[in-house]
Amino acid sequence: MSPSTVRTPQQLAQLLQQQRRKLGLTQDDLGKSFGLLPKTISLLENHAERSKISTLFRLCAALGVEIVIQEKVGKPGLQDGPTATHAETEW
After folding, report:
1. Which of 1, 14, 12, 21 shows the shortest CA–CA distance to 69?
2. pTM of whole model > 0.85?
3. What residues have CB less than 8 Å from 60, skipping those under 6 apart?
């Protein structure tokens, strides 16, 4: 998997699902191998905003990927995300 910029839970979920499929694993296969319930994997892939951060890290470990945090190029803030408020975009 090449590095990807992720700004929303949905983008992250899509990348994790792509990695799972790239590895040829079903949600059930992945769950059985790494002690996750298939419904937990499904929740993260379909409703990432409702998932626990601990689940995210377990799934990343199971898929052999990691999260890297780096400074954003440009003005800091939430203006790129779907939750930006009017005041944040007015700077």
Report:
1. 12
2. no
3. 16, 66, 67
- Cα–Cα distance for residue pair 58/81, rounded to 1 Å: 25
Q: Is 67 exposed, middle or buried (0-12, 13-18, 19+ CB in 10 A)?
A: exposed
* Both tokens assigned to 60: 């990343």
CA 44 – CA 19 distance, rounded (Å): 13
CA distance 42 to 86: 33
Nearest one of 89, 25, 12 to 62, comparing CA atoms:
25
CA distance 60 to 53: 11
Q: How far is C-alpha 69 from the chain's CA centre? A: 13
pLDDT in tens, 30-88: 998 888 899 999 999 999 899 899 989 999 999 999 988 888 887 766 555 555 444 44
